[in-house]
Each structure stands twice: as C-alpha cells, then as structure tokens.
Write a structure and sequence with these properties.
The structure holds two protein chains of two kinds. Chain A is α+β, with helices and mostly antiparallel strands. In chain A, 53% of the residues lie in helices and 17% in strands. In chain A, strands 1, 2, 3, 4, 5, 6, 7, 8, 9, 10 and 11 form an eleven-stranded mixed beta sheet that branches. In chain A, helix 2 packs antiparallel against helix 11, helix 11 runs antiparallel to helix 12 and helix 15 runs antiparallel to helix 21. Chain B is of the alpha/beta class. Chain B has one domain: Rossmann fold (3-Layer(aba) Sandwich). In chain B, the strands form two sheets. Chain B has a six-stranded mixed beta sheet with strand order 6-7-8-3-9-10. Chain B has a four-stranded antiparallel beta sheet with strand order 2-1-4-5, covered by helices on one side. In chain B, helix 4 packs across helix 5, helix 4 packs parallel to helix 6 and helix 5 packs across helix 6. The longest helix of chain B has 18 residues. Chain B is globular. In chain B, 46% of the residues are buried. The chains are: A alpha+beta, B alpha/beta.
Chain lengths: 827, 229
C-alpha cells in the first residue's frame, strides 16, 4: 500500500472514530468567520470600484465647498465633456407643526449622468426608473418625510422660502453619500429653485458636486489639468481610480469586524492546538510500532502531516461555504448602512478563507505534530518513553506570527498592528497570571474542603494550562460581548442623563451675521436660555511649520480625523467659558494671526507653542502662530472649537454664527416659530441626533456580535478539547471511584462543581474586566460618573456557569456510563 | 441447591449457576458457564487458569463490578444480581477492598489522600487518622504527602494495599498484585498482603499465575474455558 493510501486510510479511521471532530469544528469556525469577513470587505470594495461610475454619478466628480471657477467648466466643454451638478445642504423643514432635519439636493437638468433615479407615485405605487430629476417648482421626497411631515403627493413643501409641489417619492439615487447625514431623509429639487429658497448665502455650509462624463482620454486629460488647481478643501474623484468613500461608520465596522474575527481565529487556534495535542498523544504507541516496522522520522512526519493537509483542505472548503452563508447575514444586519446593490462575491475571497484555514492549521497544529517525529521505537517495550514537548518559542512564535499577519491584513497599518498585538499579548499574560493565582489559591484551600468539593475542584486543577486557556477563551469573548451590549444600550443614555437639566439641547448653525441680534432678542423675549453666539468660518488645517499635516498623524487618531475635513474656525476676544488655558497666554493686545489650539488635538498632532499653522479657506491660505493651548469639556453642549483665533485673523472670510440653546418640552412650539422666521438656519435637535447615533451603533454592534457568537462557539470547542484531553484519565478515575463505592450522584455532583466553578470564574473575570474598561471609558473619555451594573455581576457568572456545566457534563457523560469493570481490564 | 446454600452459614460469597456471555460479531461468546461457588468467611482462595479462561470476568462478577448473564450471586447473604449499579457501589464500599496489577492510584492525590478515599466515601470522620496509621503499617510513614509518580512500583502497591485494607473489608480481591513488580518486590508485597489479611481476618480472593502463591491460599479454584475444573 502506498504511503499516501496509508495516510488516507488512517485519516478515515480516525475521523470515523471521532478523534478529529473537535479539530474539524475548530477549523470550520476559524475559516467560516474569516471567509465571512473577507467576502464582506471584498464585496464592499468591489461594489465601490465596479459600480464607481454609478456610485459617483459620473466618470469624474469635483467636490467643493464653494462654486468652482467658470474656467473649469469652459475647459470641460472644450474637451467635449458633458456636465451636471448637484448642491447638497441640510435644512429643517416644517409642515403641519412637525419638523425634521432633511438633506436637500438641488440638481441640474442633466443629472444623473450615470445611473438612474428610481421613483414611486404613492404607497402602493410601483417603482419606476427615470433619467431626469424634478422639474422647477416641484420636489421629490423620501417616503419618511411624507410620513413625518404628514404630507401626501400633491401637497406643498416649503424649503427655506420657496414652496414646492411634492410630485413623487424618491426611492433610489445613484450617488447617495454614505455619511452620517445620509440618515437625514432626502428632498430632491431643481437647482433653478435654489435661489428662491434664500438659504444659500456666503458662508453657508453646502457641498457642491460637479459631475462630468466623456471619453476616457478626455476625462484623464481634464483630471490632469484640474489637479494642480485644486485647493485642499476640493477633491476630484475618477471612477476608474477612486472609489466613492465608504461612510466612516462602515470603514470602522470593516476594521472592527476584522479584529473580531482575529479573536475567533485565536480561540479556534487554541482549540486546534489542544485537539492536536491529544491526537498526537494517542498516536504515540502506533507511531512507535511504525518506527519498529521501519518508517523513518521524516516519513512519520510526512504520514501525519499529509493527513492534516487533506483534513485542512476539506474542512477549509466546507468552512468557506459556511462563511459565504455567514456574510449574507452580515449584509442583512448592516443593510441600512450599505449601498443598495452589492457586487457579487469573487472566488478570491473564498480562497482567502481557504488560505486562512490552512495557515491556522499550520500555525497551531504543527508544534504538537512534530512530537510524533520524536517518538522512539523503544516505546514498544518501555511505554514510559515519551517524546519531549515542543519548544516554547516554536509554539508561541508560530501563533504570534500568524496572528500578526492577520491583524495587519485587516488594519493595513503597521503601527496599529504592533499596538493591537502588544496590548493583546500583555493582556493575555496579565490575565493568565491572574487566573493562575486564583487556581493556586483554590489549591491551597483544598485541604479544608469536603470530599465532594475536593473531587470537583481537582478536576479543574488537574491541568492548569488547559484550565487557564478555557477561562481566558470564555472571559475574553464575554468581555467583548458585554462591552458591545453596553455600548449599544447604555452609554448614550448614561451620558445624556449626566447632563445638567437645562443643558442646551439644540444647536443653531448657519445664522447669518445680520440675524444674530434678532436671534438674541427672540431668545430674550421667549425666555430661551442660550449660550454665546460664535462666528464660524469653515477651513482646513494643511501644514504645521511648513510640514504637511498628513505626515504627522497616525491612523484613526483624533488628529487624523481632524485633518481630513473642514474645521469650524472661530475667533473671540476672551477665553471661552469652560475652556482652560494649559499653556501659553491668551491674547491681550488683540493682535491678528494668533491661534489657540485644543489640548488633545495639539497632542495628537504634536503642536507646540510658537508653531506656525497653515490653513485654507476655500482657495485662500493664511497662517497663524500658536499662542496658547487650552483644554475644554466637549460635553457641555455648548459650541466648542479645536481652533480659536485672535480677532481680525479671519475677517477676510465670509462667516456664519453658531449657538446652542435649551428648550423645555413645553417650549417646543417655539422651535417651529424659529424655523419659520429663520428658514436659512439649520437647527439640530440633540435628542434626534443621539437617536440616530444609537440606531447606527445598534447596527454596528449587532454585526460585531454576530461574529462574537463564532468566538463563543470556538470557546466551547476549547472547553470540549480540554475535556477530551483528559477524558481517558477521567474514565479511569471514575471507574476507580465507583469500584471503591462512590455512586454516580457523587461523581455527577463533582463534575458539576468543576464546570460550574470554571463558568463562574470566567464569568466573574469577564464582568470585572468589562466594568474596568467601562469605568475608564466613562471617567477618562466621557467624564461622567460610572455606576456598576450589579445585575451583571449576578447574571453573567450564573448564566455562564449553567451553560458551561451543561456542555461540560455532557462531554464527560461516559465517565458515569462506563462500567467499573474497565479497571480490571486495565483500560 | 438453593435450600442448601441458604442453610450454609459463615459463607461470605455464594454463586449459583453463574454464567456470563457476550455478543460479538461472530456470535455469542460464553466467557463463564454454570459457576457454583461457596466461599467461607476468612478463606483465602486462589483463582488460577490460563489467559482467556475467564478469571478477570469471574472476580468482576463476584465483586459486583459487572452483572452476570444468568445465575445469582450472594455477598454476605445479599443478592447483588438484583441490585442496580449504585446499590452495588454502596455494597462494595461496605464490604470489598481491591488490589490491582497496575496499582490504580489516583494521580492527582497524595499517598495519604489515596488511602483516605474509601473511608471518605463512607463519610468516616476518622479517615485521616486511619489512613496515616495504615501507611505507617506498610512502611510508608515518610511518604504520606508524595504523589504516586514520586513513588516506586513497590511503594505504589503498598499504598494500594493500605487503601484496600483501610475500610477493614470483609472481602479482598487481588488481581495479579505482583504482575508489574520484580520478584523481590513482589515477594515483599505478597508477605504484606497475607499479613494484613490475617490481621483483618479478610476473605482473600486472589487471581494469579503464580503456583507458589496459589499454594499459600487455603483453596485453589481452576478455570478452564469458563468452567470450574
């Protein structure tokens, strides 16, 4: 029989006898979760790339906070490019005493250039495709708006000062952006009506999208002509090179899902290592015999590793299929955040899951397998001869390298990879030592306990490493789930409840300078408690001491977030309330060209006193010197600013004003009056925004929890692997105990104690860690007091103990069922 | 026969028509057939026979570790064939001690804890004192806190002997007690076994291949192909 046939035959026998079940299950979990994430990411990326033209709405798009130069449009015309444009902004709409923040899109006649619009003409109306937007004097609304504002088709909607006839329901637009404000329902109108709304004035916050289609060569030429002329707040996107941006929420979801799958892979890897260790130990005798019969060491290794390769290929194939099904679930959970049609999956991503399966198998199964190579033929006569344990550096080195590669794959950031790995390793070591200490404490207390408790706890202490692995696996997974549960449900509510009763609950933006005094008088007359009115100019930080800011930040830091968008720049004579100077001096002599920087942003960007900061406002640039650094509290619900300038610095730029105010429930009708009187002002209700955040968070945490269930399953595989590693010994001990007169009830009770304590320990550890993390989050980040959840301290360990007891006792049921006769037969 | 058995006094084990068969892929295998035995209190019995003759099966039935296919077994006048497993376990704890060829100590317990175990299973509060005394008796006073893996084969078997006798059993089953020991150590163990047996007035049932050892017992029972000869 050829060696490979022998390998296959041994593999088949071992599979049928259940030897490899746990290993296969662990591999399936690792592969399916990795495949699900890979498919999810790849389909998203493909959607953005393949459908870029449709998602951009054109072959090339210029985004700008202001109108572009006429020369740019003339150049496009000369290149025979067809153009369209869209202007997007937010406005509060009020009809029938109901109000809502809506996203308004005013489009030109040629929109959309790529893709189609879909509309419906009533609740029961069939969706139809159109190639042109609304006519002047009309508006198309998101279905949600009709419901909230109690409108129907044929009614009038007033946008700013312009009444528009509502003619259709818009159900799909090709280039809908995926940002937070896409939660605001859509009003689509003709750009010819825009002037009449009175909303757009110098300084207003709007986004302009200039769209072009044409021959590929012309597009490239136009783009190359444009690029040197763009200012930092303008972007050009080409459907062939750039994909439209995923929302930042979706970007983060992608990254956190990836990191969650690493947790799954790690726990599954531990299960694979434990299952392989047992497998190899049960094959020592057979291996010794094969060596006696003439097989060499390398041939032994080949014999077993080829079995594992075949096993890995089959399990990875099945796991990839399961992963395919799982990613369907992920897309369903996140459907509201995603583009409407998603590109199909490619073979490449399925292959990625495959590769992960083989790599995980190699990383975690190879060290125990190598022991088989060391089995001595002499073992046939001297059974006490055992091959030495694999080198620690090999075991942990392989696992660490593998996990590092996978982390890097998801983060694409070396610094973040090292941070995540470092924090992970330190946490595991600290937790492992803590658990070891707890187990030693239990060991010390054993003498004083009854027989039942000693028997039960000795089950836990029989293999420290296995017990530590199990407790770690469960507690880490539970921590992730508890945090995700808390984030979804409690954090925003707790933060809100900590605010003073009359803290501002509305923000008013886009107040024009000539409206400020009227606003103040209206507040005074209506006894509305308002904060200061601050002028605002939208601008972008571009350089620090002549070095481009992009070179000074790490990904996802506060600084990183601040440099990729326009900031609200303001000026004031005196230090704003609730701001505290940490370094430098506040300007005394009102000299322009000075700036005060918020402390955390300064730390993130490495900004120091005296540094020269460069800003752009539209196409204009200016510099300011850092005169002071200040700290502030972001949760006062008053306007706060990263950059505050000395008076005179921003005089050359158009500005609007911002303020915040408190409206009691009984004063809510005043809001309608304010909106009607100041139609160009955007009024944000904090409650509504928080509600939208909660909705977003709920979806993201649901997706992450979906993956964490994989981790929980992997945790149970670790438990079963640990149980099976000791099953033979447990059976002998159980038979011996029953030989000496112990009844089944005693043995069952001891098993219950063992697994309950395991569950309790991991549950308590999980609650402890999650409480510590939440305490840090509440006190250091949110600056609010934290109240522990006592019901969690009770419920989580209890529930965990019950679940693990059920599974563990099921796993060792043979111990009670095998007859004590086995003792006499030496089994 | 039944009346006669019932009338036999001082019998600690009585079997009547004891048989054991198992179903294999090749059909029914009769391991034991029609075993009738009377063992008196205080007797020492050697069970001898070739490998596969049914010795281990016989003592497993006599000790209540297995149920016969047919027949009856009485231990101290109680029928164990009618008992369930927990009932037989309780009876074993009360009446029976075991010594095995492969010692069968619990690896996670010290020598003292291994010897205490049968008494603790009874709820006996004097377990520690009794176990300590017995370990002194078998010459292991200095090894009370040692784990089995720290003991030699002979020392492990002495611990096993102490464990077997700590409950002062009515019956002791010893299955090839010296099978894993060298001849000198084995001889010492046998001496200790018989001394303890005499001190405790236990009925000893010994499975052995050693004819010299069998000769030390009051009676020898020979099994051939599952039958008494």
């Amino acid at each position: 029989m050829s060696r490979f046939n022998l390998a296959l035959r041994l593999l088949w026998r071992d599979s049928r006898s259940g030897e490899l079940t746990l290993l296969i299950l662990a591999l399936l979990i690792a592969v399916s979760s990795s495949t699900a994430i890979a498919l999810f990411s790849e389909r998203l990326q493909s959607t953005m790339s393949q459908q870029a033209a449709e998602l951009l709405g054109a072959d090339l798009v210029i985004t700008s906070p202001e109108l572009i130069a006429p020369a740019w449009l003339e150049q496009a015309q000369q290149l025979n490019l067809i153009s369209a444009h869209a202007i997007e902004f937010h406005s509060v709409l009020i009809e029938h005493d109901e109000l809502i923040l809506a996203s308004i899109k005013a489009i030109s006649d040629t929109y959309p250039l790529r893709g189609v619009l879909k509309i419906s003409e009533g609740d029961a109306g069939v969706e139809s495709i159109v190639h042109q937007g609304p006519e002047p004097g009309t508006a198309w609304l998101d279905r949600r708006l009709l419901s909230v504002l109690k409108l129907k088709l044929g009614d009038t909607l007033t946008v700013g000062e312009k009444p528009l006839l509502v003619t259709k329901i818009i159900t799909y637009e090709p280039d809908k952006k995926g940002d937070f404000f896409s939660f605001s329902p859509r009003v689509m109108m003709n750009n010819l009506d825009l002037l009449a709304t009175g909303i757009l004035q110098p300084g207003s916050q709007v986004h302009y999208y200039f769209q072009f289609i044409g021959a590929a060569q012309a597009i490239v030429e136009y783009k190359n002509w444009l690029k040197p002329q763009l200012n930092p707040s303008q972007r050009v996107m080409d459907s062939r090179e750039n994909r439209p941006e995923l929302s930042s929420a979706l970007n983060r979801a992608e990254r956190y899902l990836g990191l969650s799958s690493i947790l799954v892979i790690l726990i599954a890897g531990v299960a694979i290592a434990m299952a392989t260790t047992r497998y190899t130990e049960r094959h020592f005798d057979a291996t010794a015999l094969l060596r006696c019969l003439g097989l060499k060491q390398q041939e032994i290794l080949w014999l077993y590793s080829s079995q594992f390769v075949v096993l890995g290929l089959v399990a990875s194939a099945v796991g990839s299929a399961l992963g395919y099904c799982a990613q369907v679930g992920l897309f369903y959970i996140l459907r509201e955040l995603l583009p409407q049609s998603i590109a199909p999956a490619s073979i490449g991503s399925l292959f990625f899951g495959f590769i992960i399966g083989m790599v995980v198998l190699l990383g975690f199964a190879l060290p125990p397998l190598l022991r088989l190579k060391q089995v001595s033929a002499l073992r046939v006569l001297r059974r006490e001869l055992e091959p030495r344990q694999p080198a620690v550096w090999l075991v942990y080195g392989l696992a660490t390298s593998l996990i590092s590669l996978i982390i890097y794959k998801y983060t694409h950031d070396l610094k973040m990879t090292v941070s995540v790995l470092g924090v992970g390793i330190i946490s595991l070591i600290v937790l492992g030592l803590l658990i070891m200490g707890l187990l030693k404490l239990i060991q010390k207390r054993l003498d004083g306990m009854s027989l039942l408790w000693r028997l039960g706890l000795q089950g836990l202490l029989r293999n420290n490493r296995a017990s530590i692995s199990q407790i770690l696996a469960f507690s880490i997974t539970l921590v992730a789930m508890l945090l995700s549960f808390n984030v979804r449900n409690d954090i925003i509510d707790d933060w809100q409840q900590q605010l003073p009763k009359d803290a501002p609950n509305h923000f008013a933006l886009n107040i024009f300078p000539n409206q400020v005094q009227d606003f103040k008088e209206d507040f005074k007359q209506q006894h509305i408690l308002g904060s200061e009115f601050y002028p605002v100019v939208r601008g972008r930080l571009t350089a620090i001491n002549q070095i481009a800011v992009q070179k000074r930040v790490s990904k996802d830091s506060q600084g990183d977030n601040a440099i990729h968008r326009d900031l609200s720049l303001t000026w004031t004579e005196s230090l704003p309330n609730e701001n505290k100077l940490q370094a430098g001096e506040w300007w005394v002599s009102l000299q322009p060209g000075l700036v005060s920087v918020e402390q955390k942003l300064a730390e993130s960007l490495g900004i120091k006193l005296g540094d020269s900061l460069a800003f752009t406002v539209g196409s204009q640039q200016f510099n300011a010197r850092v005169a002071s650094i200040r700290s502030l509290r972001w949760d006062t619900m008053k306007p706060n600013f990263y950059m505050v300038f000395s008076p005179g610095t921003l005089d050359a730029y158009p500005s609007t004003f911002i303020t915040s105010f408190y409206l009691a429930e009984s004063q809510k009708e005043l809001l309608n009056a304010l909106v009607k009187k100041y139609p160009s002002t955007t009024i944000l209700e904090v409650d509504l925004i928080l509600q939208q955040f909660k909705t977003l968070l709920t979806q993201l945490t649901q997706a992450i929890n979906f993956l964490l269930y994989f981790a929980l399953m992997a945790g149970f595989i670790v438990l079963m692997a640990a149980v099976y590693a000791t099953l033979d010994q447990r059976i002998v001990e159980g038979a011996l105990m029953r030989t000496m007169g112990a009844n089944r009830r005693l043995l069952r009770a001891a098993q219950l104690i063992e697994f309950s304590v395991l569950g309790l320990l991991s549950g308590v550890l999980a609650v402890l860690m999650s409480e510590l993390i939440l305490f840090a989050l509440y006190s250091q980040v949110l600056h609010i007091s934290y109240h522990p959840s006592f019901y969690l301290w009770l419920l989580v360990p209890l529930f965990n103990a019950i679940l693990i007891s059920l599974v563990g006792c099921w796993g060792v049921r043979q111990v009670l069922n095998k007859p004590p006769l086995l003792i006499l037969r030496g089994l | 026969m039944k009346t006669q058995i019932n009338q036999v006094t001082n019998s600690v084990i009585v079997t009547e028509g004891l048989a054991k068969s198992v179903l294999t892929s090749e059909g029914v295998l009769h391991i034991l057939s029609s075993i009738d035995l009377i063992i008196k209190s205080g007797e020492s019995i050697a069970i001898v026979g070739e490998s596969g003759s049914g010795k281990s099966t016989l003592i497993s039935l006599l000790a209540g570790l297995d149920k016969p296919s047919s027949g009856a077994i009485f231990l101290n006048g109680k029928s164990i064939t009618m008992m369930d497993e927990d009932g037989r376990a309780a009876l074993r704890n009360q009446l029976i001690g075991f010594v095995f060829q492969s010692f069968q100590l619990l690896p996670g317990l010290t020598a003292l804890e291994n010897v205490m175990l049968p008494l603790e299973l009874r709820g006996d509060k004097t377990a520690k004192a009794a176990a300590t005394a017995l370990l002194h008796r078998v010459g292991l006073a200095q090894r009370l806190t040692h784990a089995p893996k720290q003991l030699s084969g002979g020392e492990q078997q002495r611990v096993a002997l102490a464990r077997a006798f700590v409950t002062r059993p009515a019956i002791l089953f010893a299955d090839e007690p010296t099978g894993n020991l060298d001849s000198k150590t084995g001889a010492n163990i046998i001496e200790l076994l018989f001394e303890l047996n005499q001190e405790n007035r236990t009925t000893l049932i010994l499975v052995t291949h050693d004819h010299a050892l069998a000769a030390r017992c009051h009676r020898t029972i020979r099994l051939e192909a599952g039958c008494l000869v």
